[in-house]
Amino acid sequence: QYMSTLEQILPGASGRTATQDELLSAPFIAYQRAQDVAKLLGMCASFISEAYQRGRVERELHRKSLQLLAEANARMEAEKLLGEAEFKALQSQINPHFLFNTLNAISQMSLLEGGVKTPKAIYSLSSLLRRCLRRADGIPPLREEIDYIREYLNIKQLMYRDRIHFELDIDPACGNVRVPMFTLQPLVENALLHGLEPKEEGGCLWLTVRREEGGALLIQVRDDGLGCTPQKLKELRDCALSSGRSDLTGLGLSNVILRLRHHFGAQFHWELDSAPGAGMDIRLHIPAEAQDPSDQ
After folding, report:
1. DSSP string, 118-168
2. Residue 18 gets which letter from DSSP?
């Protein structure tokens, strides 16, 4: 290395011995100065390294600050939603109580004024509302579902008068069988809304509950309304999620069938028949072995 440096300073000198004059005239740097330069370069390197590390730390702190800010915003939003939910829950506790008291007052006032049908309608409406406020995942006895349908049809009769008729053929011995809540109402409402209401001359709806041979339970909802097309019938049989929902309970035919399958298992089956102008016939079959023995 020294010889190479010397060659650059004095060309041709690497192959011979330098004279004293040449050595004295060669450029050089003092050792102390070289050390000072080395220290300066070291300080510059340390400064650059520290600046880089400080930048990394600042970027990480900034990232964490943004993350904490986002979490704080999310927590504030969650607390806001929780507050709204608690407020709505409080409303749901207050409103029904107020509503039932109001309906009861109206019913009493109607009786004092000589009304006959109005108190009955108000009582039916109150019963419907009470049941709608209960959890929809209960498994009540079938007789409660039948009672609910009777109240529902009482309300509907006020609207239809003599245009639509209802016939219920219920075997009281089947009343203890437990079924998912709101099993019947969506089926009855579907028959009314899509089969009988659009029919100008009205019609009739039949609800049948009875035992079949072998102890199976049959629930049948039948009407002589407009019926449906083969395409619509296929959609209903496939339990299409777009097959409609009850205005009262928010549950549709597909929901009813899926809940019955979930509760009674693969032994449960159902049938659906319809044709344009021939009404619709829905039959639910609950095998005896799928029922609770204490309910039979």
Report:
1. HHHHHHHHHHHHHHHTS-TT---BHHHHHHHHHHHHHHHHHHHTTSEEEEE
2. P
Of the segments 38-47, 165-174, 247-256, which one has the largest average pLDDT value?
165-174
Q: Say which residues have a Cβ less than 8 Å from residue 41's Cβ, sequence separation at least 6.
A: none
End-to-end C-alpha distance for the chain, whole angstroms = 107
Between 30-34, 149-153, 155-159, 206-210, the lowest mean confidence (pLDDT) is in 30-34
CA distances from 279 to 194, 196, 202, 228, 295 (A): 10, 8, 12, 8, 33
Return the residue matching tokens 């109402």.
185
State the sign of the Cα–Cα–Cα–Cα dihedral 86, 92, 95, 96: negative
The stretches of the chain forming alpha helices (DSSP H) are 2-9, 20-25, 31-112, 117-132, 142-160, 185-190, 230-237, 253-264
pLDDT tens-digit series, residues 95-149: 566 566 667 777 777 777 777 777 777 777 777 777 666 655 568 899 999 998 9
